[in-house]
Amino acid sequence: MAAGRGEFKSRWGFILAAAGSAVGLGNIWGFPTQAASNGGAAFVLVYLVLAFVLAYPVLMAELLIGRHAHGNAVAALRGISNSRLSAGIGALTGGIGILMACLILSFYGIVAGWILGYTASFPIEALGFTSAADWLIGFDLSRNISLMVLFMFMTIGIVVGGVHDGIERWSTRLMPALIVTLIALALYVLTLDGASAGLKVYLLPDLSRIFSGDLIFDALGSAFFSLSLGVGTMLIYGSYLSDKENLPSTGAQVALIDVGIAVLAGFLIVPAMFVAAERGVEIFDARGALLSEDTLIFNVLPALFETLGLAGTFMATAFFALLGVASLTSSISILEVPVAFLVEQFNWPRKRAALTAGALIATVSGIVLMNFDVLFGLVVTLTTRYGQPILGLMLCIYAGWVWRQDSLLGELKKTDAAAETSLFFRIWPVYVRFVCPVIVGSIVIRSIL
Question: Choosing a second label site near 295 at 20 to 30 A (CA), which of 61, 184, 305, 400?
Answer without folding.
Answer: 184
